[in-house]
Amino acid sequence: MSSNDFNSSVDSLPRSPLSTKAVSILKNTFTSIEEYPILTWEAYRQDLNNFNHRVYYARDLVSLLHDYINSYEESFRLSPHMRLVFEGAIRENTAEDDPDAPWIEVINTIDDEPTPPWEFYYTNKIWLGDGIEPSDMTELVGCDCKGQCDPKSTTCSCLMKQQEYIRDFYTPGFGYDYKGRLRIPGVPVFECNAHCSCDDDECKNRVVQKGRKCSVNIRKTPNKGWGVFASKKIAKGTYIGLYSGEFLKDDECERRGLVYDQSGRTYLLDIDFYHLKPFGDVQYVVDAYHAGNFTRFLNNSCDPNCKVNPCYINEPDIRRPLLALFATRDVGIGEELCFNYNGHDPDNPEDDDDLLGTKSIKNKCYCGAVKCRGKCISLSTGLSEALIHRIYVWLIYLYKSLYVPL
Ligand SMILES: C[S@@+](CC[C@H](N)C(=O)[O-])C[C@H]1O[C@@H](n2cnc3c(N)ncnc32)[C@H](O)[C@@H]1O
């Protein structure tokens, strides 16, 4: 069976109708020298017809591969060869968007299960659920920089956008340092996007969109199901992966949550960040149950080494960030990658109230951390770490402004 069979219905390409705004811009796309038209980037990029912003709808997700495998008897499904099929499916489904990412091995030294359950479509993409509109690309603003974007620029519109959120932290610049590592965990990151004129290869403000560089494996744990482990050292601030899956409205998530609660296993991750508080309660959720990548196997820890960070690329709507995982400290070879499902700071005792107040799954937590709270709840992305950092910066600022040398 050709592997393309499994991907065949994935091409839901919307032909976005040209808005009045875009049509009027189109007329200005060409200037000319004598009778020869000159196409300018400034005009070109504003014509939506020139971009192939592909949209993926959850209704187009395919389950052919796992239906096929699950139709066989257990002896076939539990054959050790299935491991290679699983690893191959990962490579196959990410070849287009993550071609340089290191191979992900599936390892089980605990029991005979060769792979995690065949219950999801492996993907790095976001699949829009029912009632979710595609991003309004007419609103996407790109910068006019040439070559690399400069973190000291006074004109880069992506930097200006980033500054709106990073200014509080008294550390001007992009969300990433020159090595592409996240500078302040929890602060939303605004990467350069498809409408920017900077150089895709050179610009340092493009990290998540370049894909995974770190080496990880999916390994069975003794009492938490499957987990994700570092195959090589991972430096603090390194991008780990995108929490991909179905992008849903919160009401659909509530409905699914009831079902998942029965099984004691959930892959629902709320889009719940401090900068979205003005919009009220959680509006969107990513569900990695039916579609997702290795990040769906990251387990909860009360002393985590990773964190979910909001990241914007080709998305003008502030309520719809991507959920990007980053290492929050240096991670050694063989160490399990985990984040705190509640997004809470493990050093903050007040977080216990929230933990007890939640209505979602409460499993016994097997994270093994010295400061383990004993309970593991549903996934959420709250950001107390960023707030603590902000308070810390304010205190330094206050101290500096009050300090009068003798
Ligand atoms: C997002 S999944 C993580 C991957 C999961 N271990 C698997 O095998 O598919 C979340 C589920 O993993 C389990 N889990 C995650 N962290 C845990 C922990 N620290 N202790 C116990 N169970 C955990 C819970 O069943 C939880 O609902």
UniProtKB/TrEMBL annotation:
Subcellular localization(s) per the UniProt record: Chromosome
Gene3D superfamilies for the chain: SET domain (2.170.270.10)
One Pfam entry name: Pre-SET
Swiss-Prot/TrEMBL keywords: Chromosome, Metal-binding, Methyltransferase, S-adenosyl-L-methionine, Transferase, Zinc
Entry annotated with the keyword S-adenosyl-L-methionine: yes
GO molecular function list: histone H3K9 methyltransferase activity; zinc ion binding
Cell wall biogenesis/degradation among keywords: no
Domain Post-SET: 361-377
SMART domains, per database record: PreSET, SET
GO biological process, alphabetically ordered: methylation
GO cellular component, one term: chromosome
SUPFAM superfamilies named among the record's database cross-references: SET domain (SSF82199)
Listed InterPro entries: H3K9_Histone-Lys_N-MTase, Post-SET_dom, Pre-SET_dom, SET_dom, SET_dom_sf
Domain SET: 214-342
Residue ranges annotated for the Pre-SET domain, each copy included: 141-211
Protein name: SET domain-containing protein
Higher taxonomy: Eukaryota, Fungi, Dikarya, Basidiomycota, Agaricomycotina
